[in-house]
Amino acid sequence: MSSKAKNADAKVQVLKGQDAEDAVFDYLIKMNRPFGAVDVAANLKGAVPKTAAQKILVSLAEKGKITQKLYGKTTFFVATQANLEDVPAEKLAALEAEHKEAEEANKVLQAEVRAATAELAKIKSTPTDTELASQLEDAAATVKKTITRLEPLRSGAPPISPEELAQLDAEWTKYRNDWVRRRKIFNTFWALVTDALPPQESSALAEDLGIEFDTAEHISVEKGPLCAPPGVLGKRRR
After folding, report:
1. Does residue 106 surpass a pLDDT of 90?
2. Cα–Cα dist 134/126, whole Å
3. Residue 188 resides in a domain
4. Which pLDDT score is estimated for 222?
5. Is residue 3 domain-resident?
6. Interatomic CA distance for residues 237 and 225, integer angstroms
């Protein structure tokens, strides 16, 4: 336990005798709701320990000052309602007016909270300066790319018809499928031929035979939009 907590505990004055009884009784009258001994001791901040609070509550109940109720295995104590003073009509009216005023103030605060929440959500959804700069760069790059694609049309070049595009796609697919099939056959054959050769000798044999393998450019094309699946292929023209 920290030194601050120890100092706080040391400041609590433990009540005894009539002072303890008065403190427990006054608390129940003030709150006017059921409490157990543990709750009373805790709410009095340890001024009346739990054991003492239990004895005082039982004693007050026996004297008829408070009412003792048993719910299952739990005992509660509450101020005897018949002993409470009636609240004057003027005080009730004042309390009702205060309650209504508090409700109106609460409505105003709730409206302010809703407005502040909406404003906060709007601010959070607004791009930052860094995000705006990035978006502007992307937009400028898109505009530049679009203008570049429009240049042939502006210079008078005839546009390619949908039929011509379809024919080009069909030819591309046909020739690429042939290339993929032949590359697979070659790779299978080459793996059988060079299976027993060290990598250095295998490379030397390929050089002697004039075999050219895929370069970085070929691999880049394979991973690019030209070699995308048929369902995605058309997207590269949009």
Report:
1. yes
2. 14
3. yes
4. 78
5. no
6. 10
Distance (Å, rounded) from C-alpha 106 to C-alpha 114? Answer: 12
Tell me the β-bridge partners of 74.
Answer: 71
Number of domains in the chain: 4
Averaged pLDDT for residues 134-151: 90
CA distance 110 to 161: 62
- Residue 212 and residue 146 share a domain: no
228/232 Cα distance (integer angstroms):
6
Three-state SS letters, the chain: CCHHHHHHHHHCCCCCHHHHHHHHHHHHHHHCCCECHHHHHHHCCCCCCHHHHHHHHHHHHHCCCEEEEEECCEEEEEECHHHCCCCCHHHHHHHHHHHHHHHHHHHHHHHHHHHHHHHHHHHHHCCCHHHHHHHHHHHHHHHHHHHHHHHHHHCCCCCCCHHHHHHHHHHHHHHHHHHHHHHHHHHHHHHHHCCCCCHHHHHHHHHHHCCCCCCHHHHHHHHCHHHCCHHHHHHHHC
The pLDDT value recorded for residue 235 is 47
Domain containing 175: what range? 160-237
Q: Which residue has the tokens 């026996």?
A: 62
Across the chain, mean pLDDT equals 83
Q: How many CA atoms, within 13 angstroms, populate the side-chain half-sphere of residue 39?
A: 13
Cβ–Cβ < 8 Å for 12, 45: yes
Instruction: Look up the pTM and report it.
Output: 0.35
Tens of pLDDT, residue by residue over 42-96, are 988 888 898 999 999 999 988 888 888 888 888 888 888 766 666 677 877 887 8
Please state the rounded mean pLDDT for residues 3-32: 76
